[in-house]
Amino acid sequence: MTSFEENETEETATCLHMTFYHPYQEDKMMFRCLNFCKREQVRADEMAKFGRDSNACHYNLVDTRVSRVQFSLQFYRKLNSSEFCFEIKNMSKKTKLTVDQTELGYLNKIDLPWKCIICFGDYQILAEIQEGEATDYFETHLHLAKTPILQERCLPSLQPIPEKGIFPSLSLSQDKSPIEIDENE
């Protein structure tokens, strides 16, 4: 056997890709302490903490409006499964954290979906989990977005949809005031 054949099989690590956006990044440089475009290993038994306190957090956001510890991520394996996941916990007493459509208050936690958008204040973070097999550590890979992750979306028309499936004509004037109709008519 050659030394190549005797080497241990290389494990791939679960990687959490996080793309950060803030509208004033260019002016205030709040992400200047983050290490972008380079994967970093985090031990599985450590919590990945994000916030402004460099003594408590590995991922520092330079912004006085960010809590000392804003949120934490815990890597874990689901019970009776080989699937690895992350749990996100809001550590801020003052700021709510939103994960997709779920709002988390202080000390609330949920499983991080495989792909989601994390928001607090003006911060937007796209989080995407890439599966791996390593059990002793996971990796983070941080990216910087130049444009908002949450784009302004056109809201659908707020016209009611009738129960019988007959849609009102689109040519009706939008200025007409609503008419109350008895539901038995």
Automatic annotation (TrEMBL):
Intracellular or extracellular location(s): Cytoplasm
InterPro entries per UniProt: FHA_dom, SMAD_FHA_dom_sf, TIFA
Record carries keyword Repeat: no
Gene Ontology BP term (one): innate immune response
Single GO cellular component term: cytoplasm
Domain FHA, residue spans: 49-121
Transmembrane portions of the chain: none
Keywords attached to this entry: Cytoplasm, Immunity, Innate immunity
Protein family: Belongs to the TIFA family.
Name under which the protein is recorded: TRAF-interacting protein with FHA domain-containing protein A
Native source species: Alectura lathami
Lineage start: Eukaryota, Metazoa, Chordata, Craniata, Vertebrata
